[in-house]
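Researcher: Next entry in the queue.
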Amino acid sequence: MLSRLVLVSASTLKNSGALGAGLVQASRSFNTSPQSRAPVPPLPETGGKVRHGIIPEELFQFLYPKTGVTGPYVLGTGLLLYLLSKEVYVINHETFAAACIAVVFIYGVKKFGPNVAAFADKLNEEKVAKAQEVKDLAMSSLAQAIEDEKKEQWRVEGRGMLFDAKRNNVNMLLEINSRERQHLVTSEVKKRLDYQIAMQNLHRRLEQEHLVNWVEKSVIGSITPQQEKESIAKCITDLKKLAQAKAAV
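Model: Structure for this entry, 249 residues:
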């Protein structure tokens, strides 16, 4: 009967308060399936409420609807009397020693507990501060790494534009070299054509000069001394007529 009561109370406490959270956490620790992706509830920073130093408040809240306010105390007293009457637990000198140790322990907890708790809280805060500092440092380094990675990705994206610009520069250089060679070929061809034209003009001029000289020699050779005298006389006569006509005017 007591075992069944403990099982029922454990199943009910699983869904309530800090103890229930601890039981859920303990049950989840054995579940290693990758399909369990539910968020784990945070661990409580302080313990749950207890009565008489060791009895959880959830046990009283569980028994109140069924036994009333005095039910948990009656259950505890009856369980204690059952253990003593049936001699499941026998009171001996060890019981008194345990009671003395418990009194000393409770006195030490009441006397030095707050100071020890404050010291432990201070150590915990220092550890949390160090962990937070390490976390912040890691976050800052990771954020810087992310920024560096984004910058590298931006540079990689701009590398295509750089390659296009270099490709255009190479094409422009090839075009300039091609046009320079075309211009060189054109100038060389023009020089040769100019040379040919100059040679033809020279031949033509020499032929003309030779023809003029030949005609002059032929004409001079065909004039007789009598024709030369008559031509000179005629020229003189013409000059006199021109002088008279000018004087008359």
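Model: The chain is about 80% helix and 0% strand.
Researcher: Noted, moving on.
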